[in-house]
Amino acid sequence: MKLKLVGGDSARMVTAYYMCSDQGTGPERDELDFEFLGNRTGEPYIIQTNVYKSGAGSHEMRHMLWFDPTEDYHTYSILWNNHQILFFVDKVPIRVYKNSGKPNNFFPNEKPMYLFSSIWNADDWATRGGLEKTDWKKGPFVSSYRDFKADGCQWEEPYLACVSTTTKNWWDQYEAWHLTDSQKKDFAWVERNLVVYDYCKDTKRFEKLPVECSLSPWD
């Protein structure tokens, strides 16, 4: 999807573009999130990604962007197969979320997902941890969308026919199971320069880091 985000003073406004297995509120939902956290004028936008399985999230990462996403349209994409989930910005992978290949409680691969988007007011957390207040006089707050494209398998029972590795489609062939050499270079640049928060490095929040944090995005 190509998006152009809310311009000007958008503190505490969140544009969400995400995949979800139900209407977005179910306690057992699977979900893949892009969330764009609004800002005060002149400050950088922050992009947050998250992954849910069976209602369990808390897998947040936050990145700065290397451009102003309010000035023009940019492409935000998700590659999801049974080996990995990649979040892309303009074809640059900003996040890699791997499957261990074993039964686990962190990789969503057992439910179909639908596509959603919304814009909403996150009063308690979205800008500087909730310290910035929404200036409603700056409204209306508008994000624009265009050129949506999707390529995937249609969910049919039993689901294994959809998520099993068949190599029939480009997104389910070996090249899509791992980062390519050029993607590795881009991803390394992102990790060096743009990561603001990574839950896998938050030892204050987690006494013991989640098991998926031990999986290498490079494998």
TrEMBL record:
<keyword id="KW-0134">Cell wall</keyword>
<dbReference type="InterPro" id="IPR000757">
    <property type="entry name" value="Beta-glucanase-like"/>
</dbReference>
<dbReference type="GO" id="GO:0016762">
    <property type="term" value="F:xyloglucan:xyloglucosyl transferase activity"/>
</dbReference>
<feature type="domain" description="GH16">
    <location>
        <begin position="1"/>
        <end position="145"/>
    </location>
</feature>
<dbReference type="Pfam" id="PF00722">
    <property type="entry name" value="Glyco_hydro_16"/>
</dbReference>
<dbReference type="InterPro" id="IPR010713">
    <property type="entry name" value="XET_C"/>
</dbReference>
<dbReference type="GO" id="GO:0044042">
    <property type="term" value="P:glucan metabolic process"/>
</dbReference>
<keyword id="KW-0326">Glycosidase</keyword>
<dbReference type="Pfam" id="PF06955">
    <property type="entry name" value="XET_C"/>
</dbReference>
<protein>
    <recommendedName>
        <fullName>Xyloglucan endotransglucosylase/hydrolase</fullName>
        <ecNumber>2.4.1.207</ecNumber>
    </recommendedName>
</protein>
<comment type="function">
    <text>Catalyzes xyloglucan endohydrolysis (XEH) and/or endotransglycosylation (XET). Cleaves and religates xyloglucan polymers, an essential constituent of the primary cell wall, and thereby participates in cell wall construction of growing tissues.</text>
</comment>
<keyword id="KW-0964">Secreted</keyword>
<dbReference type="InterPro" id="IPR008263">
    <property type="entry name" value="GH16_AS"/>
</dbReference>
<dbReference type="InterPro" id="IPR044791">
    <property type="entry name" value="Beta-glucanase/XTH"/>
</dbReference>
<comment type="similarity">
    <text>Belongs to the glycosyl hydrolase 16 family.</text>
</comment>
<keyword id="KW-0378">Hydrolase</keyword>
<dbReference type="GO" id="GO:0004553">
    <property type="term" value="F:hydrolase activity, hydrolyzing O-glycosyl compounds"/>
</dbReference>
<keyword id="KW-0325">Glycoprotein</keyword>
<dbReference type="GO" id="GO:0071555">
    <property type="term" value="P:cell wall organization"/>
</dbReference>
<dbReference type="InterPro" id="IPR013320">
    <property type="entry name" value="ConA-like_dom_sf"/>
</dbReference>
<keyword id="KW-0808">Transferase</keyword>
<dbReference type="GO" id="GO:0048046">
    <property type="term" value="C:apoplast"/>
</dbReference>
<keyword id="KW-0961">Cell wall biogenesis/degradation</keyword>
<keyword id="KW-0052">Apoplast</keyword>
